[in-house]
Amino acid sequence: ASLKRARPGSDGGAAAPTADHSAAADGAVAAATAATPPVEVEHVRRVYDAIAGQWHGTRYKAWPLVQAFVEAKPRGALFADVGCGNGKNMPACNERGLVIGSDVCRPLAAIAAERRLEVLVADIVALPYRDNFFDSAICIAVLHHISTPARRVAALRECMRIVRVGGDALFYAWAMEQTEPAPSEATPDASAAACADAAHSAAAETLENANSEGRSGHRFAEPDVLVPWHFRRPRNKGEPLPPEEELVAAAEQERQAFLAEHATFDKDKNAFVFQRYCHVYSAGELEALAAELAPEVEIDQVYWDTGNWAMVLRKVAQLPASST
To answer: Do 293 and 159 touch, CB atoms closer than 8 A?
Structure first.
């Protein structure tokens, strides 16, 4: 296993070279990376850098429909797991073929590397792979942390750029519709429908609050929200809390170590509270983003799965170099 940081325009130890990635595309993705909006820096990247260890404890296996997507691929397929986190989806890919993971959060990528998974640190809008390298890609629970339409399209474009012509990619993102929509809005194919009951029952145990896996547990009033994560300070079981003044003083010292300046301390829960930025997608919104990649990319499938919208895109022709 290895952990590598890759940057556009450098060798970066990346698993796949960028020899046929045009200078124009290199400049475009470098500009997109440099222009990461402050809300993503403070409320996504710095949050996950801080909570990676606890987050890892709540994510431990691929969701059933994600695993079904992977298992439908030919033996020996090469997968990209973009936004791999702690690598929870990567074992399923390795059972089918070979997977290379990437994540912008170095602590999460380090956890994946400790699990002997092949992973590097990279930005979804600036992936350090050559064009047409992978047979298939998965991008699970990443798009809802991207804050602008232009960057969401850039993320889709990068994932499809690295997939070969004829290859596909599966995307998952939180849904505004946290209860199952009408059939006309959610139309999984037969293979997806066959797994749906398993997906719902497997997820039900862990969907009680914003810290749970998959469904957010919220009812959203608007699409752009800050969702709290309670990062509990370690304490031995049964150990009483110290006096309030000591508790708050100790917590303040710890808080200063976080790069996320917005973190607050909840003394009643003995926890730091981080606010994660999320954009929750309404029915049809992912398809509208994907339409920006037509005609070289087509939509194979869209379905709702346990509080998420999922979309499968297929690359039918080489994508032109980005002009933005």
So the answer is: no
Q: Measured between alpha carbons, how far is 217 from 204 in angstroms, rounded to an integer?
A: 11
User: Would the pTM of this model clear 0.85, i.e. be above it?
Assistant: no
Strand positions, DSSP E, 13-88 = 78-82
Cis peptide before 295 (omega within 30 of 0): yes
Model confidence over 84-126: pLDDT tens digits?
999 999 999 999 999 999 999 999 999 999 999 999 999 999 9
**Selection from 249, 289, 69, 61 nearest residue 157 by Cα:** 289
Q: Which residues of 113-136 are buried (b: 16+ CB within 10 A; e: fewer)?
A: beeebbbbbbbbbbbbbbbbbbbb
Instruction: Provide the phi-psi class of 87: left if phi over 0, else alpha when psi is between -120 and 50, else beta.
Output: left
Place of tokens 């602008």: 148
Q: Does residue 39 sit in helix, strand or coil? A: helix
Digit-coded pLDDT (tens) for 169-207:
999 999 999 887 866 555 444 344 333 333 333 333 333
Q: Is the dihedral of CA 147, 21, 108, 205 positive or negative?
A: positive
